[in-house]
Design a protein that fits this description.
single chain, 231 residues, mainly alpha, Arc Repressor Mutant, subunit A, 2 domains, 69% helix, MT1864/Rv1816-like_C, HTH-type_TetR-like_transc_reg
Amino acid sequence: MTTVRGARARARIEITAAIKDEARTQLAAEGAARLSLRAVARELGMVSSALYRYFPSRDDLLTALIVDAYDAVGAAAEQAAAEAAEQRPLDRWTAVCRAVRAWAVDHPHEYALIYGSPVPGYTAPEDTIGPASRVGLVLVETARGAHTGEGVALPPLPEGLRPEAARLAADLAPDLPPALAVMLVSAWSQLFGLVSFEVFGHFHNIVEDRDAFFAAAARRLGQDVGLLPRG
């Protein structure tokens, strides 16, 4: 009986993976708004009722794809941080940013699913929050390491921003200075702005050497966060 259950579990894993692979093919061809369970089932030679046993609705399938995409870019960021663990924080920050960009350029349709236009009629459930936080947490940890190690250089906070800075710090990183929390949120949003401009073609006929441009911009973001350049 254990062998039968194991075979069924493996079959379910394989079929689930095949469903998601076909759904990603549809994302590339048609976009997330036109994702169809019936079309996925048809391409896999399944009846729709069989596919519904794996994903009861289109939104369930979308959520699985979104979680996978967030986990993939998060894993790329975490791996880059681990590989650069012995480097100075600014170099580690830049390595993480470059890993995020590389993943996005290699997976433009999955990137568009999580950072592009919202899918009409779809509301992301709480299941996506943890995976969506992974890149941000790597950036926070990089800044935390600098703050507790060689220190960070931050500009003074404008008076009017101090209440919001205190709230951000309390929510995101209570052990870090409010000014650092503000700069982290700002840099996080600018990082994905840079990546989105490239992935969605806004640098066309403007930026030619995009590797060099991005590396310099990512390093500048790290310095804005207060990470110190090599002395």
